[in-house]
Write a structure and sequence with these properties.
By secondary structure, the chain is of the alpha+beta class. It contains 6 helices and 5 strands; from the N terminus they run αβαβαβαββαα. A 5-stranded antiparallel sheet has the order 2-3-1-4-5. A hairpin with a 2-residue loop joins strand 4 and strand 5. Keywords: Ribonucleoprotein, Ribosomal protein, RNA-binding, rRNA-binding.
Length: 175
């Protein structure tokens, strides 16, 4: 027995609601995954604030048809599709998916959508390779700290040079 029209409308409304909070969607082919493996994937990406939704392509097509930001996703809607709805730290969620993919070797990334633009597999993988937010903050802090240290050493060196110059002059006059 299939779903009722009300069930389908509720699913589409839920998808639209999730998409309003989402920054990027990655579409994967999940054929061959067991329920336990799919649960493992959901648990891995949940740590970074992402959600894995498995729904019919038709229902996702209906959910994105009025939203220009997500319409490019329609080119990936074929076969068995799972949708990784990412927000926050995109790189961490994509890295978690890549780790899962290496372990299971059963899924295939079709592409993604971000800011109204379809992304190829290579572009999605490039986002996954970016440093995390914490790493970027640490790099910036390190750069600022290094600059502050150089300034402090430079400022300290001015009076030291002046003192050495005065001492040299006084020794020269004494001799």
């Amino acid at each position: 027995m299939g779903r009722t029209l009300e069930d389908k409308q509720a699913i589409v409304a839920d998808l639209k609601s999730l998409l309003t909070e989402t920054e990027m969607v990655a579409v994967i082919d999940y054929a061959g995954l067991s329920v336990a493996e799919l649960s493992d994937l959901r648990n891995r990406i949940a740590a970074s604030g992402a959600v894995c939704k498995v729904t019919k392509n038709t229902l996702m097509r209906i959910a994105v048809e009025d939203d220009a930001n997500w319409q490019p996703m329609t080119e990936f809607l074929k076969g068995t599709s799972a949708f990784l709805l990412l927000k926050g730290d995109l790189g961490a969620a994509l890295k978690a998916y890549q780790d899962f993919q290496k372990a299971s070797k059963k899924t295939e990334l079709r592409g993604g959508v971000m800011e109204g633009r379809a992304l190829t597999q290579a572009e999605v993988k490039a986002i996954a390779d970016l440093p995390s937010k914490e790493q970027l903050i640490a790099q910036i802090a390190g750069g600022i700290n290094g600059l502050a240290t150089k300034i402090a050493v430079g400022v300290k060196e001015v009076p030291s040079m002046l003192a050495r110059g005065i001492k040299a002059i006084s020794e020269k006059q004494a001799a």
